[in-house]
């Protein structure tokens, strides 16, 4: 079976934040987590790059290259998006409000 790994707050073993660029965050509606949202990663030109489904606690994560990204969430409650600037390796947090 193919698919994205479980989306939780723990990074996979072997993740090296001195080398890896990780975009992580939560999908929220009125401050409450939204599980089951389709979370899409778009590059600086708006091209689709990847998609995961947020965990029950609204968490999601992408391994990406440094740069400018858009994170878009599509859920039963509504849609939302936010921009993320990842200037280099490390853990870059964001939240996406939907409604």
What do these coordinates show?
With 99 residues, the protein is an all-beta fold. The chain has a single domain (21-97), classed as Carboxypeptidase-like, regulatory domain (Immunoglobulin-like, Sandwich), CATH 2.60.40.1120. 0% of the residues lie in helices and 53% in strands. The strands form two sheets. Strands 1, 2, 5 and 8 form a four-stranded mixed beta sheet that branches. A hairpin with a 4-residue loop joins strand 6 and strand 7.
Structural topology:
Blueprint: E1 21-29, E2 32-33, E3 38-42, E4 48-53, E5 59-64, E6 67-74, E7 79-86, E8 90-97
Parallel strand pairs: 1-8
Antiparallel strand pairs: 1-2, 1-5, 3-4, 3-6, 6-7
Defining key terms:
mainly beta
Quote the average pLDDT. 91
- The coarse silhouette is globular
Spatial extent as radius of gyration: 13 Å
**CATH domain fold name:** Immunoglobulin-like
Q: What profile does the largest beta sheet have? A: 4 strands, mixed
Architecture, according to CATH? Sandwich
- The total tally of domains equals 1
The CATH class is: Mainly Beta
Strand count:
8
Report the CATH superfamily.
Carboxypeptidase-like, regulatory domain
Write down the secondary-structure element order.
EEEEEEEE
Separation of the first and last Cα atoms: 32 Å
Helical amount = under 10%
Q: Low-confidence runs (pLDDT<50, min 5 residues)?
A: none
Number of helices: 0
Proportion in β-strands: over 45%
Derived structural class: mainly beta
